[in-house]
Amino acid sequence: MLSVWAEAMAVLPPKLEDINLDFNKMVNESLVFLIRQTAELLYEGQNIAKCMQLSQNIIDFSWEKLNIGTWRDVDKEWKRVFSYGCLFKAVCLCKGGSAVREAIKTCDKGLLMGAAIMDNVLIRLVKVLQNHNNSKKRALEDVGSHQNSSQKRLQAAVPLIKEIRPGTEVPRVHCPSLEHFRAQYLIPQKPVILQGIVDHWPAVRDCKWSVEYINEIAGCRTVPVELGSCYTDDEWSQTLMTVAEFIDKYILHQEEGNPIGYLAQHQLFEQIPELKQDIQIPDYCCLGDMDEDEITINAWFGPMGTISPLHQDPQHNFLTQVVGQKYIRLYSPEQTPKLYPHPTQLLHNTSQVDVENPDLLTFPEFEMDDFQECILSPGEVLFIPVNHWHYIRSLNISFSVSFWWS
Length: 406
Ligand SMILES: O=C(O)CCC(=O)C(=O)O
What we know:
Layout lengths: L3 H8 L17 H16 L3 H19 L9 H18 L6 H14 L7 H11 L3 H23 L14 E3 L3 H9 L5 E4 L15 H8 L3 E6 L9 E6 H10 L8 E5 L2 H4 L1 H4 L19 E7 L4 E5 L4 E8 L2 E6 L40 E5 L3 E5 L4 E6 L3 E8 L1
Helix pairs in contact: 1-6, 2-3, 2-4, 3-4, 4-5, 5-6, 7-9, 7-10
2-oxoglutaric acid binds next to strand 6, strand 8, strand 12 and strand 13.
């Protein structure tokens, strides 16, 4: 059997000359020299300690560049440099064979903060490293033994909404034709729950996406996690942790007083393609004018009690429930003035009203009765038309996938 180092090196091109180490003039010559030197050391395989040190220098230098100004203004070239640093460091970490987890973490940092390099080499490397990571099996056994009791404890914390008010329920329709959906719901911009359209997804079929499965596929991967009951709270923050840590600390053993953790991420399916194989873009998206690769696919994985405050998005949404249930409240765009959007530019798409417990003294115009609501269950897909306000609370451990399209 090949060593993990040999397997990691096999992910790289056989010859150093085959790596494209050209950068635009943004990246100065001495840094390009450093990157080349690091790559040479890696291919020689003799002085890995020095190679590791230089990789870290590349990471540190580009990290500073990534943190200047706003994220969308960061030059892509610095993201490429960061990815090279992470790639070299991750391979170095494989040398002794004992730091594979650390190597996976390093790849994930490159995937999250860097840009794709060398035909997605970081994704290919992580796949190789994951095969060597057998400690996931132990974590899996842990998950199995704790799930039932912790699910009960979580359910005690927040009351379930069991009843939907008569007359407010979002209608349900089973596998409508494209034309029916277009005429009845898309054109008039009416929310609807589509049933039977994702039953064939591997994620839904046989309830494949259990907590155990997610842990098995993604346990050792580092992902961003939101901490706090909702993103408008002062204490809300984001942090990086492995999926296994997230499951252990926030899904299965949520301690009283600890913040709620939510894995709410639009990059998850790019970062972990194994999960993407279990889902499919709904056919109805072809009614829009986007190519498939322009559709944003978001993952929402969390315990009972995650709340997405009332907000609106600039695209249509197919919010698909894979695991657990969510209580959802919808308001039409016409009601915007009565929903008190935050005055700041950053939060202008978010209402200041706590929908399930509104402060009517501060927000007297808030219409209490004029909404639609539903409990979305596994296999159901809620069509949220563009700009429709939506409030979402998970009623138990939940995994949803949303597709933003226009
Ligand atoms: O499920 C959630 O918590 C939020 C989903 C959402 O807001 C969206 O898909 O736009």
